[in-house]
Design brief:
The complex is a heterodimer of chains A (490) and B (82). Chain A has 490 residues and is mainly alpha-helical. Helices cover 75% and strands 1% of the residues of chain A. In chain B, helix 1 packs antiparallel against helix 2. The chains are: A mainly alpha (490), B mainly alpha (82). The interface between A and B is large, with 50 and 40 residues.
Chain lengths: 490, 82
């Protein structure tokens, strides 16, 4: 009986949010551009909640707190890297948005295909995006599972419950598209802020007096938790800086984040958004406070169980109502981003992997094929999730190592003279050989440096070398068609 | 006039020199918080002195995250300067 209250509250919150999203799009005719990029007409505020909302997933809500609980201050890498990513997006996304609007682009692979004049590269980058998205969607399911498990006091079959929740959100994305997600994100973000204020301020105040007193206690009782280890240790200073660089470059390479920027009404919205997004990152500080508080009050969680940290604390010390509200907000933080991620993966399959992308067919294409693919991708992710057994951040770092490899290709595409598509493909190939070699050797760090960053550097060097080589060896090799897309001044 | 992806749409037609000057200025301003939050971390890796009662590294990162919008606003103003 006790388990019913938090579950009902969770269900109500999810239902309410979905209703808001669906009501907001009831008068919008659902075409493919509307489904995927909101008809390129999202206002600044909608864009802000969409993009901010995409950064607040289970990865931050449970994962960052779990890492603060288990590993201490090295969890702060998320804090730094999102902020740096905002700065990068200020410069990187507006030119991409222009190309996207001019050429009616809808996925990040579309951008590669157009910028480098090669649908083959589009196909390769689409596959990279899909491979990276799978662990990310999987971790959202892990997050939902943890929350339902805690909210039901362990009485509900979590796999089945997470499955129901997940397919509910698939139905939601299916009907509402990206605009529906953006509207629903307003409500979701409001609940997240409430939940985080509670977890990051009220919890430390209740148990330890204040967040400052809480941090002083951590310094005393867990030496090494508020300071990074030196040298080449894993999770030391080098690891921190290299992971910050890796994830900052990768943050907007995620297919769903890249495509979200297409939804902007104009490029100034993107800049407006980039300037204000870091303010939102301060919420992360509250997540860390919650994780540290859980460490002091409820120590002893090990391995993947650290992801339960502060929610477990709430479950053990607060009423079912509070637990339901916190778990509901966390559940939405997993469900809505999972929706955009599945949408992005589905669009990559239909548009770039199997579909032919010609500008004429875009206008005529209906949302039907992508909708079918949404269901298939979701089913695949759900199937893979059954085998996943690692912490949330572990999963996300895996995805980041892969998706960040798209970064050199995007940066080189902004040069006045672009490298040949084959150079970008070559760089990707080199990066994957490096990643696989490290994986085979069982290494996550190399001299204390995140191996994903090592692969990224190899990737960039390979593209640059190929670029210089082809520039010198001769223009005869470079295809004429790969010139920069241009458009007349508006 | 044909626009390249790197050009900005909002300004008057200007000579390339001045335009690239403004871009460099705004990029230089924006790169400050980026360096502080990445390359600066090894130098801020300590507990004392406390910042607002927080251990130094926590306070350092928090302050820089809070300052980033300011730097971006400044970069934005520099980019648009006539």
């Amino acid at each position: 009986m006790k388990a019913a209250i938090p579950l009902i509250i969770m269900g109500l919150l999810v239902f309410m949010t979905a209703a808001v999203g669906l009501v907001s799009v009831r008068n919008v005719k659902m075409s493919l551009p509307e489904l995927l990029v909101g008809g390129r007409s999202l206002s600044r505020v909608l864009l802000w909640v969409l993009m901010a909302g995409e950064t607040y997933t289970s990865y931050t809500f449970l994962g960052a707190a779990g890492w603060a609980y288990g590993k201490g201050i090295c969890a702060f890498y998320v804090f730094c890297s999102f902020t740096i990513a905002c700065v990068i997006s200020y410069f990187l996304l507006p030119p991409i948005w222009r190309v996207a609007r001019q050429n009616n682009l809808m996925t990040n692979a579309d951008y590669f295909a157009v910028a480098y004049g090669s649908s083959g590269l589009g196909r390769v980058t689409a596959l990279v995006g899909i491979i990276a998205l799978v662990p990310f969607v999987t971790l959202q399911l892990t997050g939902i599972q943890i929350l339902i498990h805690l909210a039901s006091y362990g009485t509900v079959n979590t796999a089945a419950a997470a499955g129901v929740a997940f397919f509910m959100i698939i139905a939601f994305v299916f009907a509402g598209g990206i605009r529906g997600v953006a509207w629903a994100s307003i409500l979701k973000d409001a609940m997240m802020v409430g939940a985080l204020l509670f977890a990051g301020i009220a919890l430390p105040v209740h148990f330890l007096g204040s967040p400052i007193a809480m941090m002083n206690r951590v310094v005393l009782t867990h030496p090494g938790f508020m300071i990074l280890a030196g040298g080449s240790q894993e999770f030391g200073v080098r690891w921190f800086v290299s992971t910050v660089c890796l994830t900052a470059c990768g943050a907007f390479m995620w297919p769903h984040a890249f495509a979200a920027s297409y939804a902007a009404r104009d490029e100034d919205s993107i800049r407006w958004n980039a300037v204000r997004l870091p303010i939102y990152q301060i919420m992360l500080l509250l997540v860390y406070f919650a994780g540290f508080t859980a460490l002091l009050i409820r120590p002893g969680l090990k391995g993947a169980a650290v992801d339960q940290s502060f929610v477990l604390l709430v479950q053990e010390h607060y009423s079912a109502w509070v637990l339901g509200a916190i778990a509901g907000a966390g559940c939405l933080a997993a469900l809505l981003p999972a929706g955009t991620q599945v949408l992005a993966a589905a669009s990559l399959v239909t548009r770039n992997v199997v579909g032919r992308r010609t500008s004429r067919s875009v206008g005529e294409q209906g949302p039907g094929g992508t909708r079918v693919m949404i269901v298939l991708v979701a089913a695949l992710a759900f199937g893979l999730w059954a085998f996943a057994d690692t912490t949330i951040i572990g999963l996300v770092l895996m995805g980041y190592s892969i998706v960040t490899q798209l970064f050199p290709g995007v940066v080189f595409s902004l040069l006045p003279r672009r490298p040949h598509a084959a150079c970008v493909g070559f760089g990707l190939g080199v990066a994957f050989v490096v990643l696989l070699a490290f994986e085979a050797a069982g290494l996550n760090v190399w001299n204390g440096i995140n191996t994903g960053l090592v692969a990224l550097v190899c990737n960039a060097v390979a593209v640059l070398a190929c670029y210089l080589a082809t520039s010198i060896v001769g223009p005869m090799w470079r295809r004429k068609g790969s010139s920069i897309p241009t458009f007349p001044e508006t | 006039m044909v626009m390249r992806p790197n050009d900005n749409l909002d300004g008057q037609p200007q000579d390339d020199h001045e335009k690239s000057n403004r871009k460099v200025c705004s990029a230089l301003v924006a790169v400050i918080p980026v360096l502080a939050l990445s390359a600066g971390v090894p130098f801020a890796n300590r507990l004392e002195p406390r910042i607002l009662g927080m251990p130094f590294l926590v306070g350092y990162l928090t302050v820089w995250v809070l300052l980033t919008p300011g730097f971006l606003l400044l970069a934005n103003a520099l980019r648009k300067r006539k």
